[in-house]
Structures are given as C-alpha cells and as structure tokens.
Amino acid sequence: MPPAQQIVKLVETKEIERFIPIMREIDFGDKFLLSMLHWCGIGRRSTPLDYWQVFLIQAHSEIVGVSGLYRQPAMALATCWLGWFAIRPGFQRQRFGTAAIAAVCDFARNLGFKELWVYTDGANDVAIKFYTRLNFELLGAARDCAPGKTMADSDIVLRQTLSVR
C-alpha cells in the first residue's frame, strides 16, 4: 500500500461550482456554506485573511472531500490554520482523511509554515481524536489560546508542528 499522502491529490481551485455537490453531502450548516463562498471569492469576510487557499481532495479521479489553509492577521507569520476540512460520507474511514491531512501539512510546510492549527467544536470528540491520532497537540479552549480566532470561545484548538522532512 502506498504512503497515505500518495493516495490523495490536493486540487487548488476557487470555482464554487466544484464545491456545491460536496457541500450538499457535508452538512456543516449555513456558516460553512457562507465561509466557502467567501473562500471562493463571493462576498467579503468581515476580517480579511492574510493568506487562503481552498482544495478539493481527489483520490482515484473522484473528489472525496474539501479542505483549505488560511493565515489570520495578528497570528505568528509561521502559523497557518487548517480550514473547512471534510471527507464526503461515502469516503470516510478509508484513510482519505489521514492522507488529506498529510498532503495539507506538506503543502503548508512547502509554503514555509512551521505550525498548522485547527479548531473544532468542543463536543466533537470524533474530530478531536482524529487530530490527536495524527500528532496534533491539544492546546485547549479557543478563549484561552486563540481568542477571537474561531467561531466560538468554547471551540477546541489543536496544533501540529510542521517539522522538516
């Protein structure tokens, strides 16, 4: 079996039409949809990002998920965030998520970032376990380690150090 990151490809695009079928399958609610629209250049964020890129996650010529990277103002220059990460329900539990995180980490590392942060709802035990299994360190509640940088102060923030390979 090939290394996990070789089973997926990150397709850089801001064409919202390519995301719509995936967003119909992944029910993250209206805030997710609005964020994706902003990421694809439709509308404006209240606080512009310093850097952002969205990806379709492709495996075997099929789009299996979405993700992105972004850098927020007033964060350390070497820090970026994993954004809007989701694997379509029919493709979950097949190592595509693990492979996609590895590919996003490689992409961020190649851009010169040293840390990749992610946040999730504090009650989302599945996501927290997923990220910690992939060597993300639990930093704690957003109110303590990233105030104003997530959707809610109760969100849980995790970090992975992007070591040189």
Report on the architecture of this protein:
- Helix content is 29%, strand content 30%.
- The protein is of the alpha+beta class and 165 residues long.
- The chain has a 7-stranded mixed β-sheet, sandwiched between helices.
- The protein has a single domain (4-161), classed as Gcn5-related N-acetyltransferase (GNAT) (Aminopeptidase, 3-Layer(aba) Sandwich).
List keywords for this structure.
29% helix, 7 strands, alpha+beta, single chain, 7-stranded mixed β-sheet, 165 residues, Aminopeptidase
So what's the overall shape?
globular
The CATH superfamily name is: Gcn5-related N-acetyltransferase (GNAT)
CATH architecture level-2 label: 3-Layer(aba) Sandwich
DSSP helix count? Answer: 5
Q: Write out the strand line-up for the largest beta sheet, numbering strands in chain order.
A: 1-2-3-4-5-7-6
Beta-sheet strand percentage?
25-35%
Write down the overall mean pLDDT.
86
